[in-house]
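Note to self: keep these together.
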Amino acid sequence: MYSVMREPRSARAATPPVKELPARPLAQATPLPPVLPKPLAIQPEPAAVTPAPPTAPTPAPPQPEPAALVPEATPPEPAPESPPAATVARKINLNKATQAELELLPRVGPATAKAILAYRALNGPFRSVRDLDKVKGIGPKTMERLVPLVTVE
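Structure:
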């Protein structure tokens, strides 16, 4: 254990004495103005409200002519789940496809395309489309979308 050696009190620098301010006599003190509450504003009581006399019903505004009517807008078509970057015109052969061709498939980006190519390089050609399930990064939903778009020859 280490100990810290201090200088004796006598060797330390003495602090200078605190100067005291001269006392002011109370007669010279400036008195504060008294704080008075703000007066409350008195509002007059509301007068009794008398109902307005009944009036004759107003005529309905004129109806527009049928030619002036705006045709009803057709509801917009529902948007597709995910817009594909490019459409696949033919089935893609998993055993011959390049990375760019694989990236045309839905839910297949650069990382998944590289994983498919790496699996093909390590294990040889795909024997069936269902072998895609063995590729890391391809789950059941992706398989559902890929099966109709790919082939093995």
